[in-house]
Amino acid sequence: MATKKMSRESYEKLVAELDDLKINKRKEVAERLKVARSYGDLSENAEYDEAKNEQAILEAQINELQYTIDNAEIVDDDNISVDEIGMSSKITIKRLDTGKTETFTIVGTNHANVKEGLISDESPIGKAAMKKRVGDTFIVEAPAGELKFEVVEISK
């Protein structure tokens, strides 16, 4: 995986999430392991197996977050282009068949939340919109067929 562009806010959320996993979640899982171990025979101890699985999943999450943070490229507000769609761009697009407009902010996959208007740069719309300028049109392949959009506005 190459560097991943993200806003400072997204980066700081990831760092906070990683800290929480390392400090709080690890303690919780370690405590569950300790309690499960106290039940005796580990070969037939479902609580112990469950806690070990939870520990493995937690460590995988920590490693993945650490990798993302280590390979992050922070895009500060000053570097967000209003000429061309990129990471952290706030875009208003119009669906050409219905005339309906929507506004989204392009974010990294970890922070996408369509209900909040945050779409991933790897989502169908996000990917298709990248590098487009105001007035450009683009097509998104959807289960319902091709959707055509026009870029109405790009802001920070």
TrEMBL record:
Domain Transcription elongation factor GreA/GreB C-terminal: 82-155
UniProt feature coiled coil, ranges: 4-68
SUPFAM superfamilies: FKBP-like (SSF54534), GreA transcript cleavage protein, N-terminal domain (SSF46557)
UniProt keyword annotations, A-Z: Coiled coil, DNA-binding, Elongation factor, Protein biosynthesis, Transcription, Transcription regulation
GO biological processes: DNA-templated transcription elongation; regulation of DNA-templated transcription elongation
GO molecular-function terms, A-Z: DNA binding; RNA polymerase binding; translation elongation factor activity
Domain Transcription elongation factor GreA/GreB N-terminal per the UniProt entry, residue ranges: 6-74
Free-text function comment from the UniProt entry: Necessary for efficient RNA polymerase transcription elongation past template-encoded arresting sites. The arresting sites in DNA have the property of trapping a certain fraction of elongating RNA polymerases that pass through, resulting in locked ternary complexes. Cleavage of the nascent transcript by cleavage factors such as GreA or GreB allows the resumption of elongation from the new 3'terminus. GreA releases sequences of 2 to 3 nucleotides.
Recorded family membership: Belongs to the GreA/GreB family.
HAMAP family per record: GreA_GreB
Protein name (database record): Transcription elongation factor GreA
Organism in which the protein naturally occurs: Ruminococcus flavefaciens 007c
Lineage: Bacteria, Bacillati, Bacillota, Clostridia, Eubacteriales
